[in-house]
């Protein structure tokens, strides 16, 4: 068994399909299938069961998984040690994040980390849902609540704040808002109720309103609706500086505090490289949230 065989095994286990693994490995599904068959023959054990849902690990495949992941971490560490500049981080890092942080925080935070580590490549995966780190959809993920299950480590990054807001043009064209009672008759912008993937994103109740006139599963789309003067919405304070003309409404009355959490696979604690990347990411996010909120 060699590392290249384990790399193919990990790709199939995470993608749960030969075609998905092929896209990651940049080869065709038939080649991936042959490599898995060769590995199974060499080990004398069946590693996957094919079903209508895809490729699932057998008991033997499940036992191989942690060994393959340890080999992956060892190869990354060796590459870092031998191929990079002393003290610098190299290789690739994939970060999963909800689209609010992915759009308004991570671009500048990750750019600064890459500037300090020229051999490092960072991919930001922005999805409005919880990431599955067990399938290695990402190396680490940012969440809006700590997970309660799985072999994961969780670190609180920072609190952040949200307020009701609207564009000045919208406020100038509609009746004044001096209290929550004045919100009746105004159009609310927010999440599509049945697509809220985390209870921490259920903001509507704080306004006293019971429905949204314009909704999206993307907080960035919601922010663009607010910026376009389409109505009122609960927005991240750290996003307001990116949207000229958007101002807080009833800031002393309608205010929320939420938290960002850094979520990692438990086995990654043994990786000095990932520990250093996690710390750089945590420090950068804390600084950027604090900086942008002072501008809001």
Automatic annotation (TrEMBL):
This is Transcriptional regulator, LysR family. The lineage of its organism: Bacteria, Pseudomonadati, Pseudomonadota, Alphaproteobacteria, Rhodobacterales. Belongs to the LysR transcriptional regulatory family. CDD domains: PBP2_LTTR_substrate. InterPro entries: LTTR, LysR_HTH_N, LysR_subst-bd, WH-like_DNA-bd_sf, WH_DNA-bd_sf. GO terms for molecular function: DNA binding; DNA-binding transcription factor activity. The keyword Transcription applies. Keywords: DNA-binding, Transcription, Transcription regulation. The keyword DNA-binding applies.
């Amino acid at each position: 068994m060699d590392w290249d065989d384990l790399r193919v095994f990990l790709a199939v286990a995470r993608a749960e399909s030969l075609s998905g693994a092929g896209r990651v490995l940049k080869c065709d599904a038939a080649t991936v299938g042959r490599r898995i068959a060769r590995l199974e023959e060499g080990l004398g054990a069946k590693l996957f069961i094919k079903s209508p849902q895809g490729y699932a690990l057998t008991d033997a495949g499940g036992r191989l998984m942690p060994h393959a992941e340890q080999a992956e971490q060892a190869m990354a560490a060796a590459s870092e040690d031998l191929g990079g500049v002393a003290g610098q981080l190299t290789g690739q890092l994939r970060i999963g994040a909800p689209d609010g942080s992915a759009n308004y925080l991570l671009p500048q935070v990750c750019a600064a980390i890459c500037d300090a580590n020229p051999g490092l490549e960072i991919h930001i995966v922005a999805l409005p849902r919880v990431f599955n780190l067990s399938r290695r959809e990402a190396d680490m993920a940012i969440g809006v609540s700590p997970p309660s299950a799985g072999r994961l480590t969780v670190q609180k990054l920072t609190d952040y704040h949200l307020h009701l807001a609207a564009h000045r043009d919208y406020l100038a064209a509609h009746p004044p808002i001096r209290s929550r009672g004045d919100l009746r008759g105004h159009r609310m912008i927010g999440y599509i109720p049945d697509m809220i993937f985390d209870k921490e994103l259920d903001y509507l109740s704080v306004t006293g309103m019971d429905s949204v006139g314009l909704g999206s599963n993307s907080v960035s789309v919601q922010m663009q609706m607010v910026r376009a003067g389409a109505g009122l919405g609960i927005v991240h304070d750290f996003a307001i500086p990116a949207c000229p003309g958007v101002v807080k409404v009833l800031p002393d009355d309608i205010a929320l505090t939420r938290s960002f959490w850094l979520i990692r696979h438990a086995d990654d604690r043994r990786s000095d490289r990932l520990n250093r990347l996690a710390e750089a990411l945590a420090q950068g996010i804390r600084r950027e949230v604090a900086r942008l909120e002072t501008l809001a």
